[in-house]
Amino acid sequence: MPKNRLRLGINVDHVATVRNARGGALPDPVRAAHLAIAAGADGITAHLREDRRHIRDADMERLASELSKPLNFEMAATEEMIGLAEKLKPHAACLVPEKREERTTEGGLDVVGQAAALAPAIARLKAAGCRVSLFIEPDEAPIAMAAELGAPVVELHTGTWCHAVADGHADKAEAEFQRLAKGAAFAASLGLEVHAGHGLDYDTARKLAAVPAFVEFNIGHFLVGEAIFVGLETTIALMRQAMDEGRAAG
Ligand SMILES: CC(=O)[C@@H](O)[C@H](O)COP(=O)(O)O
Ligand SMILES: NCC(=O)COP(=O)(O)O
């Protein structure tokens, strides 16, 4: 295994989205998490939204107690969520912005504007033993503030780039890719561990893997969708291959 191999975290939120469409117990996101680990995932990500639209408290409790690989608990920095993380003690806690009316996580956390509120949240999560990560835009100001706030990890939001690629806006896509590459290098230069996620597919993950500063990708929606056609094991193997190819080419 190459020393600089990228870690692949699998986000199981949208297995729960399908389950919740019918209100029963199936498909079970925890079963998907076990399967993802058996298929080579390096960790599992799950986002317990305040409105519980996909992952629910009972899912998070089972993920925290059952998994053999690290759990990355994505959450808004609310009292309720920080309290839950203190109770469940997941390996990692990733603070993300959240709006009830949004369809998905639309941008990065406003770490500059919310620094005063984030500082105690980060301190409490660290005291609970969680590796704290901040989900932010790939720009200097939020990255520098993340370092100042003592977060050891940043996850750079790849959504704007992935949308530009999907929409065929080549110039915007190239500019967004350069923004991510520059942001990742800057974050690494400050001693931060650099992750990426949101909207990644095989092609975008392959291209981004060539940027050496990244050490982990968290991917969910695309893989859960692909699993309908080729199965979860195959889609994870194909994503692993794409990331390894990209890294080797970098
Ligand atoms: C923060 C983030 O990017 C993830 O939470 C992911 O997008 C899945 O959750 P949603 O689709 O509910 O935003
Ligand atoms: N933090 C990003 C994540 O966990 C997965 O995002 P997506 O692939 O579901 O868009």
Largest sheet entry: 8 strands, parallel, barrel
* CATH topology descriptor: TIM Barrel
Alpha-carbon Rg, integer:
17 Å
The global form is globular
Helix content bin: 40-55%
Q: What are the bound molecules?
A: 1-deoxy-D-xylulose-5-phosphate, ligand LD2JLWAY
What is the top-level CATH class?
Answer: Alpha Beta
Tally of separate domains: 1
Low-confidence regions: none
Give the count of helical stretches.
Answer: 11
Structural class: alpha/beta
Mind telling me which CATH architecture this is?
Alpha-Beta Barrel
Distance between the termini: 16 Å
**Strand and helix order:** EHHEHEHEHEHEHHEHEHH
Binding site for 3-amino-2-oxopropyl phosphate: 11, 22, 199, 220-221
Subunit structure: Homooctamer; tetramer of dimers.
Site (Transition state stabilizer): 155
Active site: 47 (proton acceptor), 74 (proton acceptor), 198 (proton donor)
Question: Could you give a quick summary of the protein structure above?
Answer:
Pathway: Cofactor biosynthesis; pyridoxine 5'-phosphate biosynthesis; pyridoxine 5'-phosphate from D-erythrose 4-phosphate: step 5/5. The protein has helices at residues 13-22, 29-38, 57-66, 79-88, 115-127, 140-148, 159-166, 170-189, 202-209, 221-230, 232-249, and strands at 7-11, 43-47, 71-75, 92-95, 131-136, 153-157, 193-197, 214-219. With 250 residues, it is an alpha/beta fold.
Features:
250 residues, TIM Barrel, globular, binds the ligand NCC(=O)COP(=O)(O)O
Describe this protein's structure.
The chain is globular and about 45 Å long. The mean pLDDT is 97. Strands 1-2-3-4-5-6-7-8 form an eight-stranded parallel beta barrel, surrounded by eight helices. The protein is 50% helix and 16% strand. It contains eleven helices and eight strands. The protein has 250 residues and is α/β, with parallel strands linked by helices. The two termini are 16 Å apart. Helix 9 runs parallel beside helix 11 and helix 10 crosses helix 11. The protein has a single domain, classed as TIM Barrel, CATH 3.20.20. The structure holds 1-deoxy-D-xylulose-5-phosphate and the ligand NCC(=O)COP(=O)(O)O. The site of the ligand NCC(=O)COP(=O)(O)O has 12 residues, from strand 8 and helix 10. The ligand NCC(=O)COP(=O)(O)O binds next to strand 8 and helix 10. This is Pyridoxine 5'-phosphate synthase. Catalyzes the complicated ring closure reaction between the two acyclic compounds 1-deoxy-D-xylulose-5-phosphate (DXP) and 3-amino-2-oxopropyl phosphate (1-amino-acetone-3-phosphate or AAP) to form pyridoxine 5'-phosphate (PNP) and inorganic phosphate. Homooctamer; tetramer of dimers.
